[in-house]
Amino acid sequence: MSNLELPVVDLDAQRAKVATDLRVACERDGFFYVSNHGVSESLQTELEVRARAFFARPLEEKMAIAMDRGGRAWRGYFPVGGELTSGVPDSKEGIYFGTELALEDPRVQACLPLHGPNLFPAEGGFREAVLSYMRAMTELGHRLMAGIAESLGLEAREVSASLLRDPLTLFRIFNYPAEPAETPRWGVGEHTDYGLLTILKQSDESGLQVRTARGWIEAPPLPGTFLCNIGDMLECMTYGRYRSTPHRVKNTSARDRLSLPFFFDPSFDADVRPLVPRASLEETTRWDGRSVFDFRGTYGEYLLDKVSKVFPALATSQLRREGAP
Ligand SMILES: O=C(O)CCC(=O)C(=O)O
Ligand SMILES: [Fe+2]
């Protein structure tokens, strides 16, 4: 494996250059860094400091906001081993956040899964930091998708109208405990992301690995940037021109590794379909043996199917639409 094989896209460059750089990056590995993204460094540091303090607390305290208290909004804390990204327990703990919706919101009243209020750590300031970060990242998500639309020769308006009327935004903070290199466990097993774009902040500890046509490479943190990758819905929307790239995590550093992925996804009710002609690329077998082109339906349907597999115990009890919010 070698370092820094992935490109950096400067978002302050001329619009046409940004679009070209995005196209090259998306066609090649589907993973790229972005610089000059405009998201406050001090806000990122604040979140990291607060998150490290939260994860250092005793388990009983963290379980005060456990996911099974979040109901079908799918929010809150899960302990190490609580998530099964690729069928086996991940060696990580984390907190799930999403768009903050009041119980009176019509979507919450309609018992829509994954919609509702967050469960924030009690410590003052956590809530405000998470919500400001999500606002900044949502803006960045729209900006990147406008560049990606241009990179495909599409109007940004067309992509917005089709997929981004009310983007589903999910934000997670993960802590991967330091583990010996020889451990057979993965922080996260090999998988692809489900939505459009994932925009990731990592702490100083490396651990993320990306499967490229040239083999597995590392995607270490690069100061002042975020790491972006393509999700299944962008692959579907581009008819395979841009592919969702498999990746996995193993923290082999001596310190706990924090990662803060922000998922910028289609609207829950978006009918996801290709917006460009079929790519000439041969369709290759994906890591999970499925093709995203087989899927037709709303993004919400796709996501719920995936989520029920990574949290099987919660899925049966909480993903039903019936009942009070
Ligand atoms: O922790 C990371 O660096 C990546 C996490 C990840 O792949 C995911 O949450 O989908
Ligand atoms: Fe991922």
Automatic annotation (TrEMBL):
Gene3D superfamilies for the chain: B-lactam Antibiotic, Isopenicillin N Synthase, Chain (2.60.120.330)
Source organism superkingdom: Bacteria
Iron keyword on record: yes
Record EC number: 1.13.12.19, 1.14.20.7
Keywords (A to Z) from UniProt: Ethylene biosynthesis, Iron, Metal-binding, Oxidoreductase
Catalytically driven reaction(s): 2-oxoglutarate + O2 + 2 H(+) = ethene + 3 CO2 + H2O; L-arginine + 2-oxoglutarate + O2 = guanidine + L-glutamate 5-semialdehyde + succinate + CO2
Domain Fe2OG dioxygenase: 166-266
InterPro entries the UniProt entry points to: DIOX_N, IPNS-like_FE2OG_OXY, IPNS-like_sf, Iron_ascorbate_oxido_reductase, Oxoglu/Fe-dep_dioxygenase_dom
Pathway it works in: Alkene biosynthesis; ethylene biosynthesis via 2-oxoglutarate
Similarity comment: family membership: Belongs to the iron/ascorbate-dependent oxidoreductase family.
Protein name per UniProt: 2-oxoglutarate-dependent ethylene/succinate-forming enzyme
Organism in which the protein naturally occurs: Pendulispora brunnea
